[in-house]
Specification:
Structural class: alpha+beta
Oligomer: single chain
Helix content: 25-40%
Shape: elongated
Strand content: 5-15%
Order of helices and strands: HHHHEHEEHHHHEHHHEHHEEEHHE
Largest sheet: 3 strands, antiparallel
Radius of gyration: 27 Å
Length: about 475
């Protein structure tokens, strides 16, 4: 039978325990000062002996295995200070990466070997109190080929270095605590106001690297969080994030049976009538003032569409055209202005391609999809290049949403919390009405784009239904934006 090791104290100076020091930093110092291996430290502080944990030190996203009372006695540090180094103890559900790469402030690390738990957050690029860049120190663990045990890859560290550290001054300690509490108290207020905030706004609490194609989600989530709970004037929180105003929608999805997943709605059935009502609302509310731009765009030939200059593109009309063509299965722009007598199917947006939703959910996602497309174009055109490829099937909705766990597991109902860009803000950013005339690229640049399109079409890659280019220079010809419709 396993028993607890008989040890009453660990070598530790309580004066050198800094506020909100991360679990990684805390374990690292304790092991070095006491000459402990991972399994030995686990045996000392775990709630109960567990053979599964004997060979490795668990990660920091879940501290439920730690007996903080025993941990406090071993270090002579209050339990609440130790808990402040673990996200789950702070009541925040973080997105944990497969590989934990420590992000640190050079000034904090050089002066006190201090790693604050805030540095784990991916959106933080500068130290709140020093203003220095927060960079990566080392990948401190990654799963081995057998996935067990984990390999800990620690940077150079020594006992003499730890013994030479000095306690923080009262002013520095209060400053760190104040900055950390500013974020934590704001996020607690966000959690109270927004249901399932840790999942819906996951990029604001993520430790994983945010992919380039998902960078827009951070700006949307930051914008919506600040709308719900405004930050104080001069706050350091989210100061480096270009927030985008967003709207919120709560959708209850009843789902569809697998047998009915292939049943497509048509333009003339009840679902099609609802879609046409949505289309009329979007046109009257946002596109009507751009009628002349829309008429010009629909008259352009395919050659002209492949060589539009970015300073001559109406973002509102381009978004409306792309949205309608993707939903109504149109291969040419002329289909927008020609009345079709025959009935045809609709490509309504699905939250998940593998889990079909009911018609009301698909209609709501189709409506929100327009604003996602519009925001993508508005964001990209000033950068100098845009290429949009329409596919027969909408791959992923350009909407940020998260499922709320408010129903039993076997229940057919599911609640989706969604955020999407605010139309009023997009009107302001896109401009009304457009004053710039439609312009085309020079002949040399048109040749580059035409050659690029021909090489793509003869290759093994999937052919698009239609391509719209808005380019401003030769280097932008290869750039592909995040619209993956």
């Amino acid at each position: 039978m396993q028993t607890w090791p008989k040890k009453k104290r660990l070598t530790w100076d309580p004066a050198l325990h800094y506020p909100f020091e991360s679990g990684w930093s805390l374990f690292r110092k304790i092991k070095e000062l006491n000459g402990l291996q991972d399994h030995e430290l686990v045996a000392l502080i775990a709630r109960e002996p567990d053979a599964f944990r004997r060979r490795r030190l668990p990660g920091y996203n879940n501290s439920s295995w730690i007996d903080f009372d025993r941990f406090s006695d071993l270090l002579n540090v209050p339990a609440y200070e130790l808990k402040n180094g673990f996200w789950d103890q702070l009541g925040i559900e973080t997105v944990w990466p497969h590989e934990y790469a420590v992000r640190f402030c050079e000034a904090c690390m050089a002066g006190h070997q201090y790693h604050c738990i805030l540095f784990d957050l991916t959106w933080i690029h500068r130290c709140p109190w020093h203003g220095a860049p927060v960079g990566k120190l080392h990948t401190v663990y990654r799963p081995s080929e057998q996935h067990f045990p984990r390999q800990w890859l620690l940077p150079d560290f020594s006992v003499s270095l730890l013994l030479s550290l000095k306690p923080l001054g009262a002013q520095s300690r209060h400053r760190i605590i104040g900055y950390v509490l500013e974020y934590l108290q704001w996020w607690k207020a966000v959690q109270q106001q927004i249901s399932n905030a840790d999942r819906l706004l996951q990029h604001l609490v993520t430790i994983s690297k945010i992919a380039d194609e998902a960078a827009f989600e951070l700006t949307w989530q930051a914008g919506y969080a600040q709308q719900v709970v405004p930050l104080q004037y001069g706050s350091w929180v989210l100061r480096d994030i270009d927030s985008v105003r967003c709207c919120y929608s709560r959708v209850v999805d009843a789902g569809r049976s697998v047998e009915g997943a292939s049943d497509l709605s048509t333009i003339r059935d009840d679902t099609g009538k609802c879609y046409r009502a949505i289309r009329r609302y979007i046109f009257r509310r946002f596109v009507r003032r751009h009628r002349s731009c829309l008429a010009t765009l629909c008259k352009l030939s395919r050659e002209d569409l492949l060589s539009l200059a970015s300073d001559g593109v109406c973002a509102t009309c381009l978004a409306y055209v792309i949205w309608r063509m993707s939903v109504e299965n149109l291969a040419v722009l002329e289909g927008l202005s020609v009345r079709r007598d025959k009935d045809f199917s609709l490509n309504l947006t699905e939250p998940w391609a593998v889990s079909p939703s009911d018609d009301s959910t698909r209609l709501m996602f189709t409506y929100m999809q327009f604003f996602g497309i519009w925001a993508a174009i508005v964001d990209q055109i000033p950068k100098g290049g845009l290429e949009v490829s329409l596919r027969k099937v909408v791959g992923s909705p350009q909407i940020v949403f998260a499922e709320e766990r408010s129903y039993p597991t076997r229940s057919p109902l599911r609640t989706l919390n969604c955020i999407y860009p605010d139309g009023k803000d997009l009107v302001r950013r896109a401009g009304i009405p457009c004053k710039a005339s439609w312009t085309l690229l020079a002949s040399e640049q048109q040749c580059v784009l035409r050659t690029h399109e021909w090489l793509t079409s003869v290759g093994p890659s999937e052919k698009p239904v239609v391509q719209l280019h808005a380019q401003s220079d030769l280097d932008a010809a290869q750039a592909r934006h995040r619209l993956w419709i």
